[in-house]
Design goal:
This protein is of the alpha+beta class and 92 residues long. It has one domain. Helices cover 41% and strands 23% of the residues. It contains 3 helices and 4 strands. It has a 4-stranded antiparallel beta sheet with strand order 1-2-3-4. A hairpin with a 4-residue loop joins strand 3 and strand 4. The termini are far apart.
Length: 92
């Protein structure tokens, strides 16, 4: 059984975009994922998996924002475009 969660509800440090991850329970761990972004995380609880997902989301957002367009091809280019066009960085 899987359920979808908005990241901003559980991980408040995520970029300002509505990202929904699908959470499933395995035998011992919960799995949070977004196949479009290629992000997968695990945790011993549902919230732990979602929190780990949020940390990965911020990591990859920062990673792809740093890359130059002339250095990315294929899947990296697709992901860089998503992070640059759909995410908004807000300074507190």
């Amino acid at each position: 059984m899987s359920k979808k969660y908005k990241i901003s509800e559980v991980y408040p440090k995520s970029p300002l975009v509505e990202v929904v991850c699908e959470v499933t329970k395995g035998q011992t761990l919960f799995f949070a994922e977004d196949e479009n972004l290629g992000i997968f995380a695990t945790g011993e609880s549902r919230n732990e998996a979602i929190s780990a997902f949020g940390e990965h989301l911020v990591h990859f957002y920062e990673h792809y924002k740093r890359l130059n367009w002339d250095s990315v091809t294929g899947e990296a280019r697709r992901l860089k475009k998503i992070y640059e066009e759909l995410f908004e960085e807000v300074r507190a």
